[in-house]
Structure formats: C-alpha cells, structure tokens
Amino acid sequence: xxxxxxxxxxxxxxxxxxxxxxxxxxxxxxxxxxxxxxxxxxxxxxxxxxxxxxxxxxxxxxxxxxxxxxxxxxxxxxxxxxxxxxxxxxxxxxxxxxxxxxxxxxxxxxxxxxxxxxxxxxxxxxxxxxxxxxxxxxxxxxxxxxxxxxxx
Length: 152
Prior knowledge:
Strand content: 25-35%
Shape: globular
C-alpha cells in the first residue's frame, strides 16, 4: 500500500510541475527586444506591437517619494480579464521591469520592489494589462527618488 501511495503522489507532483510551465510564456525568449528597449514606448511596442492603450482599469501604487532607490515598493492592481501584465519604468537604461502571463481566475494584485537609478528627475512607472478582448489598458505613477539613498 505504501508503494501505491508513493507512486500516486509522485505522479501528481510531476503533473503539478509540468502544467504551469506549459501555460506560461517566457517573454525573455519570445520577445527579446522588450528587455533591451531604452524607453517605455519602445518596450511596450516590442512587447505588444502597439502603444495605444486605454488609460483606465490599471492602478499603479508607489510612494510619492521613495527614500531607498535600491528597493522601491510597487503595487499593480486591475480587475480586467487579462492575458498578460507588463511593467516598465523610465529611470534605468532598460525600460522593462517584468511581465507575467495571466491565467484563468488569477487576481492581478502584485507587490514587488524595483531598483531605480535616480538623478533627481521624476520617474514614471507604467503597467500595461493586455485584456482578453485584445485591448491594452494602462496605469502610471510618477514618483521621486531621494538622491544618494541607494542602499541596494
């Protein structure tokens, strides 16, 4: 009986490891120019083939002034029925930050930290949600990063 339980659990574990990777797109492989684009618009164009986005339905939350450029907290939220989410910024040499494939019943509410290069000018963070309806939706937030506070 123990052998049968072991084999059943092994099969379930193998299936669990295979299923998510079969559905997720590796954007670094399928869209490599996204990760070398130096502007937000160039990166969005490389990712989605268009920069035309509806300025609604996506919320980007950051502090108004980040005190540590080495770890700036960002939250992305949306209720849009989506295929993917991508985040971009205009402070670092490469604009793309991250991209996710969205699965059925997923909730778009992501918290993460990013490192931003700062020269004192305002920094724009933009999130694009690709809806299952084929439209792009965007939200942005402009923030300041205190100069000389990089702990990262």
